[in-house]
Amino acid sequence: MPAGLDKLQHIVVLMMENRSFDHMLGSLTVVNPQIDGIRDQLSNPDINRTPVKPLPLAEFQSQLQPDPDHHFPAVDLQIFGGNRAADRQPNMQGFVKSYFNQQQDVGHSQKIMYYFAQNQLPVLTNLALEFAVFNRWFASIPGPTICNRAFAHYGTSFGRVDMNLLYINEPFQSIYNRMINANPKRTAKLYYYDVASSTMEITNLLQHQPELFGTYQQFLSDCENGVLPDYAFVEPNYNDHGTEAASDQHPDHNVQAGEAFIASIYNAIKQNDQLWQSTALLIVYDEHGGIYDHVPPPTCPVPDQFTASVNDTGTGMPFAFDRLGVRVPAILVSPWIQKGTVVNRIFDHASIPATVTKFFLGDYSPRSPREINADVFIEPRGGQVDPVRNLLSLDVMRNDCPDFG
Fold it and tell me: How many angstroms separate the CA atoms of 372 and 354, rounded?
């Protein structure tokens, strides 16, 4: 067993909100050409068919107003450019057109192409360059937050493509219930910021399991005291209230507040030496928020067992959960990861329960078809470990990992 996998005891997932890969990490291509970000030939047509190129003009706040549309019909336009033909292929040419629909302002619609310069996001970009960045991590479906987060918790959205509260009536348990019902029992906890923000409604489905929930402050305390559960899922603050600024980075919340929040999660783990050497932290975004990305989402080798109807999708076509959503930032952090690692395998949020299940529980059934076929970002224990796929590959733990004040 490689040393990093042998010592691994905790997997932590921090899921942020509504930003695309190109928007947040696209600037890094000039630093490391292996990172598939912004390049000179990229553009999107505006409503007058004038090519609009990505520009490093993104602002921390007050730029993306109104909130870019990221519901299923709008994302369909963004991915396919308005093509409704049966044999259509994704071309990523509809982002400016989609944003124009919200305000009918040509100049304003072009802001959807703006991205952050590297020095504007020192926490996120440093983590991407220092550890493992995923070139091909996609939202699970081309739709909004709730159904995408359901894939992170359940490995499926049970046929939903909207923001309605999910009513789970299928035999797939959440990753949290799998863990605490295992024999021997495992530990899992979903840390939300505070009672007001909860966890994007998905926790309402699990409130009969109070042992599964904790606050952000408890996460910091659990890290300090070395009592972090086997699996932890961390939620940012979704709302401005009192002196607390929203830290989820959802447009149009302040991106710098999110940078500070990401740093606080990283620091809490790193400042406990035992925890740092035994934890892998995945930082990922739930979906792209309607913001430009240039990589076409791939089809799924195996679709889910559900189908969203024409009435559900709003596009005039059903959706068989056979294509992924738009690409999002994803970074895996561990002192056992080689600096500058770039991963080109395809992942989506179903990879989260797939990874946690295989690592801690081994074989498990039943699970959704999408989860069963999702790639894992940490190799499971037991058997032969594939050295090519193992991201925690170093024999000696690094001592040069960054610190954030």
Answer: 7
pTM score of the predicted model: 0.96
Of 7, 1, 13, 3, which is closest to residue 278 (Cα–Cα)? Answer: 7
Cβ(54)–Cβ(26) below 8 Å: yes
Q: How many CA atoms lie within 13 A of 118 on its CB side?
A: 14
Look-up of token digits 């709008």: 74
Q: Which residues contact 62 (CB under 8 A, 6 or more apart)?
A: 252
- Overall residue count recorded for the chain in this entry: 405
Q: What is the pLDDT of residues 94-138, one digit of tens each?
A: 999 999 999 999 999 999 999 999 999 999 999 999 999 999 999
Superfamily of domain 3-36+118-372 in the CATH hierarchy: Alkaline Phosphatase, subunit A (3.40.720.10)
DSSP assignment, residue 399? Answer: S
Whole-number Å distance between alpha carbons of 331 and 259: 14
Where exactly are the structural domains of the chain?
A: 3-36+118-372
**Can you tell me the distance from the alpha carbon of 235 to that of 76, in angstroms, rounded to the nearest whole number?**
27
Whether 138 contacts 92, CB under 8 Å: no
In this predicted structure, the answer to whether residue 244 has a pLDDT above a threshold of 90 is no
